[in-house]
Design goal:
Layout: E1 3-6, E2 21-22, E3 28-30, H1 39-45, E4 50-53, E5 72-76, E6 90-95, E7 103-112, E8 116-120, E9 123-124, E10 127-128, E11 136-143, E12 146-158, E13 164-168, E14 173-177, E15 184-194, E16 199-208, E17 211-216, E18 226-235, E19 238-252, E20 265-272, H2 276-291
Antiparallel strand pairs: 1-4, 2-3, 5-14, 6-7, 6-11, 7-8, 8-13, 9-10, 11-12, 12-13, 12-14, 15-16, 15-18, 16-17, 17-20, 18-19, 19-20
């Protein structure tokens, strides 16, 4: 690893990070793909500055974990009964007939029943992805309380007034019911303040509307301890700072990954007395990550 300083002015704001950002001790503060809400957030978290691995490859596309769906409901039609997909909803695409099966997040434009579904063309570094008519893909979207998935093909690529495409109308749609409190796999930098007033940077690796799983140093506390978790929530052009009171439910030693080779521990926390606005942000954030394919 070749850690080099990164000037704050070179860190993109409101877009997925192309590399991981580390503190001076080599701990991950922001994972690749995280979004920084503002310069103020950077200066608040780490006034001394950030480092990145100069030898690590940059992220070239939006790619999430394409988790196989389980507990599939019988096949149905699109749109599902009682569900009306909204323009602008997040849609996840997976290209099927390529050596590298990449995943891309795009927006729904609309649909013409029994004819086609219209979505934005995936972009890579601001440039439309090179695709071809007839290219096969799987589509997933979170609507209502389910994940809906279907296979389709590009019917027609369009470039005006923006880059978008018509997808073949699906003959069958599969569905998986989300748990009452679903979990999403994330990589979010956060700050924790414990009951003694100590503060440290942690990494959120799983998130639900009711709690989170963190990787942090052993000094964060013991089961039953209370803390406050602070992190930035960003959805499209909107952002907010979440300040959440929580209780440590369990502490484990990670079995795999870089954390298993360091002195980092895995903490499970449960949120307490979440306000209505914060609860809405949490649910929206979790569902967004699930829509992008980061289902735990």
């Amino acid at each position: 690893m070749n850690l080099q300083p990164v000037p704050i002015v070179d860190i993109p704001i409101g877009n997925p990070l192309p590399w991981q950002l580390y503190d001076r001790n080599g701990y991950i503060v922001f994972a690749r793909g995280d979004m920084v809400a503002s310069r103020d957030q950077l200066e608040t978290l780490l006034p001394a500055g950030f480092l990145r691995d100069a030898d690590a490859p940059q992220q070239t596309h939006e790619s999430g974990d394409w988790v196989d769906l389980k507990e599939i409901l019988p096949g149905g039609t699109f749109p599902p009964p009682g569900i009306k997909p909204q323009v602008g909803e997040l849609v996840q695409l997976r290209l099927l007939n390529r050596n590298l099966q990449a995943n891309y997040s795009v927006r729904l434009i609309g649909y013409i029943k029994n004819q086609s579904i219209l979505v934005m063309t995936p972009m890579v570094s601001g440039v439309p992805l090179i695709l071809a008519d007839g290219e096969q893909m799987e589509v997933r979207m979170v609507t209502g309380s389910n994940i809906y998935a279907f296979q389709t093909a590009i019917q027609r690529l369009c470039i005006s007034p923006v880059h978008y495409m018509h997808l073949e109308y699906p003959a069958e749609v599969r569905a998986q019911i989300l748990r009452k409190s679903p979990w999403a796999r994330v990589n979010l930098g956060a700050t924790v303040t414990n009951a003694q007033g100590g503060s440290e940077i942690v990494r959120i690796v799983n998130l639900s509307p009711n709690g989170a799983q963190l990787h942090a140093l052993p000094t964060m506390g013991e089961p039953g301890g209370e803390l406050r978790l602070i992190f930035q929530a960003v959805m499209d052009e909107l952002g907010t700072t979440l300040n959440l009171d929580a209780t440590i439910m369990h502490v484990n030693i990670p079995q795999t990954g870089a954390e298993a080779e360091s002195n980092m521990l895995e903490y499970g926390i449960s949120f307490r007395d979440v306000s209505a606005p914060d609860a809405l942000w949490l649910k929206g954030l979790v569902y967004r990550y699930i829509a992008e394919g980061h289902l735990t």
